[in-house]
Amino acid sequence: METIRFLVIVTLMALCWMTVERTGAVASSPPGSGSRLPPCPDSPNCVSSESTREGQAIAPLAFQGSPVEAFACLKRVVMAMPRAKLISSDAEFIHAQFRTRLGFVDDVSFALDENRGAIHMRSASRVGYWDLGVNRRRLEKIRQVFGIHCP
Fold first, then answer.
1. Homologous superfamily (CATH) for 44-149
2. C-alpha angle with apex 148: 106 to 117, nearest 5 degrees?
3. Nearest 5°: CA angle at 136, between 133 and 141?
4. Whole-prediction pTM value?
5. Exposure winner among 21, 25, 53, 90, fewest CB in 10 A?
6. How far is residue 112's CA from residue 30's CA, in Å, rounded to a whole number?
7. Element housing 99 (H / E)
8. How many other CB atoms are found less than 10 A from the CB of residue 5?
9. Which helix (H) or strand (E) holds 11?
10. Alpha helix (H) ranges present in 80-133?
């Protein structure tokens, strides 16, 4: 009986540790500030087009034509995705949250880089350590839909 109680306590402690929210993970970038997306933490549950770390790097979204139209189209693409919630947006920055099927919240941010004809992107889990590739698959799905529907 004591062994079972010990295992239950250890399991609960492990679950609590895995679900502690990371602070500072939410990105914000005022328009025209030239700010970049926040760096990914050392954990493998984040991908960013501004990361140089193996396993975390992902290409930015490329667009042709009007940056304003491309960014507006990206916003529509993101908001049409399942379990997406727009947190904030302006002419150069989008911050959205995605709730996973298990109820965890991931932060997703996009920053317009007009000079390069690109939109930088970052997706990161708020909790845990591994994400089993969820954040990368999400951004690649956004890239796929963006390529079909956006300029």
1. Kinase associated domain 1, KA1 (3.30.310.80)
2. 75
3. 120
4. 0.77
5. 21
6. 11
7. strand 93-99
8. 9
9. helix 2-18
10. none
